[in-house]
Each structure stands twice: as structure tokens, then as C-alpha cells.
């Protein structure tokens, strides 16, 4: 979604070729290799990967700052993305149940209007159901720093 928006905007102002800087790190080689396709007009660059920057190096950098963003890494840029997997989402919702609201609204709107085929993000459970599971404390004593996504995503596609 981001790339299409960027392409559309750049085209509207007369820019037809551009470099796309992607923040994949050196320890995310699989993600880089999947993206290492230069299209005719978009040239992907991976400055963190190319400089050998790893997640540990990023964490070390931030640990030396006198402040923290206080955002668990599992949340990242896409707070409840379906690529995190159902278990991770339910765990997140035990701590941040309000994050589900926009996802629930999207699924319900889609069902009501038949938008995108009346989708839900998972074939067997909705965000509303996951929020309910989380609120019923079926997952207790969650430490979000121990949660990993179920799938390696490529959100910049």
C-alpha cells in the first residue's frame, strides 16, 4: 500500500524513476533477498543491510539514549497486522485491547458493505473474537518482549 501511494504521488509531480530506501537490517537477509528485484522505475536500496546493522546494534543504540519510546518490538509499525499471527495478536490485546477497535471496525465494515469480498483477516476468527479472548484473560501474565510474529512480513511491498 505504501509503495503504490508513493508511486502515484511521484508520478503526479513528474518523477518516474526513484530509489526506495527500505529499513531491513543485516539480520533480515531473507527479507532483503525477496525484495532484491529492481523494477524498471523503482530501485530498492537497503542501507542498514548494506552497512551490516543488526537488531542487536539497533537495540544497543537505543539503550544508550536517556529516553525510550516504550513500544514493545512486537508492535512495530503495524500494531495488529495479521502477519503477526493469532496468538501474538491475542497476547498484544491482553495489554492493549483498544488496538483492536480499528481492525474490528474494518472487518465489520467489509462484512456490511461486501467491500473486498466481505473479508476478515483470518478465515476462522475475527479481531472481535480475539479481543474477547484477550479480555477474558485466557492468556495471563503476558510479557510482550517475548512475543515474535508468526510470519516474516514484507510490509514495504
What does this entry look like structurally?
The chain has 157 residues and is mainly α. The chain has 2 domains: 1-70, no CATH class; 71-157, no CATH class. It is 41% helix and 5% strand. It contains 7 helices and 2 strands, in the order H-E-H-E-H-H-H-H-H. Strands 1-2 form a two-stranded parallel sheet. The chain starts with a helix and ends in a 22-residue tail after the last helix. The model has no long low-confidence stretch (mean pLDDT 81).
Q: What's this entry about, in short?
A:
With 157 residues, the protein is mainly alpha-helical. It is built from 7 helices and 2 strands.
> Number of domains in the coordinates?
2
Number-wise, the strands total 2
The overall average pLDDT, rounded, is 81
Estimated radius of gyration: 19 Å
**What general form does the structure show?**
globular
Helical content band: 40-55%
